[in-house]
Amino acid sequence: MPYRVCFVCTGNICRSPMAESVFRARVAEAGLDGLVEVDSAGTGGWHEGDGADPRTVSVLEAGGYEGGHAARQFHADWFTQLDLVIALDAGHLRALRRLAPTDADAAKVRLLRSYDPAVASASGAGLDVPDPYYGGLDGFEECLEMVEAASPGLLAAVREQVEGRAA
């Protein structure tokens, strides 16, 4: 059974699809295809079925990532199928932990930037990936930089879990 990671932001059209695309590329580069499944969702269903924001797609494509995506809402019953739920900011972290049916499920929820060694010692808002939706393209580019900076640490943590399953 693959190790399953789900990235979660508010509407699943900006930050979480960006994180999904970047991390999926890192998983493939690491040769973990088939061992790790990556997807994303939103805490709300406002954009369900919509593609990613065009600015997200533009920034991803400029970075060499795939931009195909359809938004969906996260549901509490998904916790049983997931190994790790990655929140993009503290508000998502709180919402997901409240939604978790058990303490073990709540423990699966982590902030993405906690995997970035440059900011991991920070706390609170310092670990948020700011929502770029109401700003310009530069906010989306900053979001991509934050996602990319956290991805190696997240990949190392996931690889350790995957290898631990095989042992």
Could you walk me through the main structural features you see in this protein, from its secondary elements to its overall organization?
With 167 residues, the chain is α/β, with parallel strands linked by helices. It contains 5 helices and 4 strands, in the order βαβαβααβα. The chain has helices at residues 15-29, 54-62, 90-99, 103-106, 137-166, and strands at 3-9, 36-42, 84-87, 109-111. The chain has a 4-stranded parallel β-sheet with strand order 2-1-3-4. Helix 1 crosses helix 5 and helix 2 crosses helix 5 (137-166). The longest helix has 30 residues, at 137-166. The radius of gyration is 15 Å and the shape is globular. The two termini are 14 Å apart.
Summarize the structure.
This protein is an alpha/beta fold. It has helices spanning 15-29, 54-62, 90-99, 103-106, 137-166; strands at 3-9, 36-42, 84-87, 109-111. Helix 1 (15-29) links the parallel strand 1 (3-9) and strand 2.
